[in-house]
From TrEMBL:
Keywords: Signal. PANTHER family: OS11G0428700 PROTEIN (PTHR31065:SF56), PLATZ TRANSCRIPTION FACTOR FAMILY PROTEIN (PTHR31065). This is Modifier of rudimentary (Mod(R)) protein. It comes from the Eukaryota. Residues 153-202 are annotated as: Disordered. Residues 1-21 form the signal peptide. It comes from Hibiscus syriacus.
């Protein structure tokens, strides 16, 4: 399946409207999207009551455009080829293309679909442009399996031993948990009590 069934709905959803059910609540803006229900955007409180055990991603805003954190979307979607940005210390990518005046002559990298200038040698400026590229050319994919196959092919070309390749394959199918480091040794000097000044001699 080249395109997930929820992707088009996500890209066409209006976010950051006020939730009708929780319009007076502090976190009542609709900035959540459920990949299982593929419906409208909803707020923090609706997630707790209606989408508790579902796959939900949170949409954020940057310069009036919708973005999603890479750490969230890459769990469910192959985002290779899409330009990412660091905003407020988090790596994000844009959902849809952003209008831009025609790029100048000195631009090194541009989006294959809309022509927007890019910072790095990526193919697309957003998930929306990648969707157009997948449907137009077929030489890009949103499938995580396809991404894993590319990784496997790269390791074969670079001559990685078969045992390490198998570990990489297994690691791509499950979460990798690092052991918790041991606490630091408690050899720091501690004060034994409140110091008392010696009485003055008479």
């Amino acid at each position: 399946m080249a395109v997930p069934p929820w992707l088009e709905s996500l890209l066409s959803t209006a976010f950051f409207t006020v939730c009708r059910t929780h319009e007076d609540a502090a976190r009542g803006e609709c900035n959540m999207y459920c990949l299982d229900c593929k419906g409208d955007a909803f707020c923090f409180y609706c997630r707790s009551s209606k989408h508790k055990d579902h796959q939900v991603i949170q949409i954020r805003r940057s310069s009036y455009h919708d973005v999603v954190r890479v750490t969230e979307i890459q769990k469910v979607l192959n985002i290779s080829g899409v330009q990412t940005y660091v905003i407020n210390s988090a790596r994000v990518l844009f959902l849809n293309e952003r209008p831009q005046p025609k790029s100048g002559k000195g631009v090194a990298h541009i989006c294959e679909i809309c022509g927007r200038s890019l910072l790095d040698p990526f193919r697309f400026c957003s998930l929306g442009c990648k969707l157009v590229g997948v449907r137009r050319d077929g030489n890009a994919s949103f499938s995580l399996e396809a991404k894993n196959e590319v990784l496997m092919e790269r390791t074969r070309k670079e001559g990685m031993p078969k045992e390490e390749e198998e570990e990489l394959r297994e690691g791509s199918q499950q979460d990798i948990y690092l052991p918790t480091p041991p606490p630091p040794p408690s050899n720091a000097r501690r004060r034994k009590g409140i110091p008392h000044r010696a009485p003055f001699g008479s």
